[in-house]
Amino acid sequence: MRIVVAGATGAVGRLLLPKLIREGHEVIGMTHHESKKAAIENAGAKALLSDVFDRESLRTALEESRPDVVIHQLTSLSSRNFSENTRIRIEGTQNLVAAAVAIGVKRIIAQSISWAYEPGEGAATEDVPLHVSAAEPRKTTIDGILALEKAVTELPEHVILRYGMFYGPGTWYAPNGFIAEQIRQRQVPATEGITSFLHVEDAAEAALLALRWPSGPVNIVDDEPAKGVDWLPVFAQSLGAPGPQTVSSGNDWERGASNRKAREEYGWKPLYPTWRKGFADSLRLPS
Length: 287
What we know:
Blueprint: E1 2-6, H1 13-22, E2 26-31, H2 37-42, E3 46-49, H3 55-65, E4 69-72, H4 82-102, E5 107-113, H5 138-152, E6 157-163, E7 165-167, H6 178-184, E8 194-195, E9 197-199, H7 200-209, E10 216-220, E11 226-227, H8 228-239, H9 260-265, H10 275-282
Parallel strand pairs: 1-2, 1-4, 2-3, 4-5, 5-6, 6-10, 7-9
Antiparallel strand pairs: 8-11
Helix pairs in contact: 1-7, 3-4, 4-5, 8-10
């Protein structure tokens, strides 16, 4: 298949490109940074320069590449530009979908998140509604996700990957990442809130497998949703950082997510089934 990967140089995209190429696909990596073309080409893909906020140039770019599938991994989270990230989810997704529909693309695979569910007991399944009644600042995140997920359903085949909290290379939780630095400074308290994690290698593998999955949302998270009081001390220890402060609090929507559908129905098997091993491997610092 001919596949356009939007966000080809992000934390997931750069791991996904070689996976797709090894499977024999013709891969086109999209970026709006001229400086990132070489990284895409060095991975064995063709580089496509286009700005997701420029609808006309985006349509022209897709017309020239004529993909069978579009994989949407665009974010601006590496720079922590949250307003632009929301704009990507809303306006950027709408533009990408419009361009794909216009040239007859049938399938899109899109990055979403697994912590957008409404409050409740236990790890959320895909049947749980998203948190539409959330107050700010969470509402902005939910609105972006709602817009993204609604937009991609305009294509007849649409797989929505509701990823867990990323860790691993190129993420906030990498040894040199934003959260890791905050933890070194003891600025992240351990709470009762529950998080579902996901190594970026497993995120990329899920995007590859999703080429054959049925339409709809699917949680891509590890096997062990964890309270902050459980995972944060382990993370800090793996990082060689001081232990965190503990507070008896947590948001009612911090419930984690279930990966039963991905594992049992789709056959997805994460390389890192639990953050315990994943943290130890990804945070091991050179001696």
